[in-house]
Amino acid sequence: MAEKKNILTYAGLRELEEELQQLKVVTRKEVAQKIKEAREQGDLSENAEYDAAKDEQRDIEARIEEIEKILRNAEVVDEDEVDLEKINIGCMVKLFDMEFNEEVTYKLVGSTEADIFAGKISNESPLGHALIGCKIGEVVDVEGVDGAEKYRILDIQRSNL
Length: 161
Known about the structure:
- By secondary structure, the chain is α/β, with parallel strands linked by helices.
- The chain is built from three helices and seven strands; from the N terminus they run βααββββαββ.
């Protein structure tokens, strides 16, 4: 079975590469030092610092493995080549939320980069999925947990401006 492609913007790719570098170069050494110091305290069977450091080491190695897997299957969207006639990954979209009578702006990204608090929605989310391929002026119906929501598309821009 082929692994799922991880759609990333260049910014998302850089963030993951920087995190991976930080984990491999800095964090690994810090945790190894913690383990060494905890070992020097003697009996490991009742050593909470040793157990905590080993748990942290396991978590770091798992995150390194996860990032490496994401990067192996990465497909990078060139935001400079995004078609501004219709919405796609890499676009910044200004919408009018018809229920709350307000404008909202989102960057459409792959699921790996999604962060609603940073205004980044996934192409796999209900709203992101509904927006793909739509044009300025269209009204999009999105089935949410509280029923259908309507959004009018006001503007499409490159998100790397």
